[in-house]
Amino acid sequence: MTPSILIAPSQSSSTPESFTEMSNGDVEAIGAHCQMAYCHVLDFLPFRCESCRGTYCLDHRSETSHKCPKEGEWARKRNALNASTNASLPKPSLLNHDHQCSDTSCKMLIYTNRMPGNHCTTCNRHYCLKHRMQEDHDCKNLKLIGARPTTISEGQKAVKSALSSFRKAWGARARAFENTRETKVAAFAEKFKTKEEKTAAQRLKEINELKKTARGESSIPQDKRIYLHVKASADTTKSKYPSGKFFYNKDWTVGRVLDLAAKALQVENVNNRGGGEEDKLRVFHVEGGRPLRFSDKIGAPCQTGNTIVLLRGVGDPDLIEL
Q: Is residue 277 part of a domain?
């Protein structure tokens, strides 16, 4: 039952019906009276019953409340109309449907209401649910159709080639900066290098002490925690104690760990403000002897007990490796 503004008993059927037009300026002509016996309340937004075409107020708008003599007629007409519409649509078949499972032993039509299609990016074919897995449609023995996507190795070669061209175009300034960066990296690697090998018992004792004093977010699960010694070079921090012991989530990126460490050690972090590599902070992994990429997960190169240092101006690790 829906509000209606289409019926006005005082108007002829030849003109558009409306409840909102006033007759001779009479305010009481707006709306309509409820046709329910003993009610006849004037409703400015009356409801029309689609079965008996009667006009009713809010309280008697449903077919049950006004005891509709044709109860359910509008619903039956609607269902019959929907059924006839669906019957007029042809059933998917090989004659009117183009999408069929690409497996040679399967005749299933895909991309229909009952069977969604699945695209295999390896062989560039479409399959039903039964043959969607590569081992189910013998993907390794199929010849790729269409254009072959660029492989990872080809993409890496293209990136390295572009970086190499960039470095050549950068000129003398790039070479001077690289020399400074490499010198700084080597100096820090030598400074924090372990002077003597420690026994397994000594390493275990140090890790236990680290776990007792390290700070971090308590919501990190125990099996996901990685405990690290974090230091900041003297030229980057304003903290009275430019080092600390912290634990992070192994799945966090190096960039996220850098942000947290910089905040904890009061190191100015301008990485998100643009600028050159001279002003950017990088995370230097002491045991690995190299800076880490922002996108790497901290748990990949680092282990509990390792040391990371916040450095400025060491440059992009990708450029260093070229």
A: yes
Give the number of residues written for the chain.
322
162 lies in a domain?
no
Question: How many whole angstroms separate alpha carbon 228 and alpha carbon 292?
Answer: 15
Q: What is the DSSP string of 26-67?
A: BGGGSSEE--STTT--EESS-EE-TTT--EE-STT-STTTTT
195 plus 231 within the same structural domain: yes
Find out whether 101 and 128 touch, Cβ atoms under 8 Å: yes
Indicate the SS3 state at residue 82: helix
The single residue listed with the structure tokens 């304003």 is 238
Predicted confidence at residue 6, as pLDDT, reads 43
Whole-number Å distance between alpha carbons of 251 and 100: 41
> Quick one: which of 310, 289, 308, 304 has its CA closest to 206?
304
- The span from the first CA to the last CA of the chain, in angstroms, equals 73
Q: What was the pLDDT predicted at 198?
A: 64
Of 248, 280, 284, the residue nearest 267 (C-alpha) = 280
Q: How far apart are CA 56 and CA 47, in angstroms?
A: 5
Name the residue among 292, 192, 308 with its Cα closest to residue 247.
Answer: 308
Domain that holds residue 124: 92-149
The pLDDT assigned to 34 comes to 92
Q: Quick one: 279 and 214 in the same domain?
A: yes
Cα separation values, 69 from 2, 51, 61, 79, Å: 18, 8, 14, 19
CA contacts within 13 A on the Cβ side of 258: 26
pLDDT at 248: 93
Residues of the chain with pLDDT under 70: 1-29, 85-97, 146-198, 235-241, 274-277, 315-322
DSSP assignment string, 152-198: HHHHHHHHHHHHHHHHHHHTHHHHHHHHHHHHHHHHHHHHSS-SS--
Q: Is the pTM of this model over 0.70?
A: no
